[in-house]
Design a protein that fits this description.
two-stranded parallel ribbon; globular; 103 residues; 5 helices; 10% strand; mainly alpha; 2 strands
């Protein structure tokens, strides 16, 4: 019997790896994703979290890294996870370019 869950997982990882390969280190604006007037849900989350300096955050499904990069830029210790090794590599590339550390 075929494991359909594994097939879906592999297909999703490939899709996101392909997406990551098309992105560059400059492809996101983390501050805009969290501070712009149009980012109401993220501004709400920030209001609940309070100051980020010194907090430890796990970003599950980090994707291209907007949240991971923003939280790290505000002084949080961030660990990024994603189904896609390519996306994780992209997050690391973007973090390095900005002088940030993301585990």
């Amino acid at each position: 019997m075929k494991n359909h869950g594994a097939d879906v997982f592999a297909r999703e990882a490939r899709f996101h790896d392909t997406w990551a390969a098309q992105e560059g280190a400059d492809g996101v604006t983390p501050a805009a994703a969290f501070e712009a007037l149009t980012a109401q849900e993220n501004r709400f989350i920030l209001s609940l979290l309070g100051g980020l300096k010194g907090k430890t955050i796990l970003d599950v499904g980090a994707g291209p890294g907007e949240a991971s990069l923003y939280f790290a830029s505000q002084g949080a210790t961030v660990t990024a996870t994603d189904i896609s090794p390519g996306m994780l590599a992209l997050v690391q590339q973007r973090a390095k370019k900005r002088g940030l550390r993301i585990a």
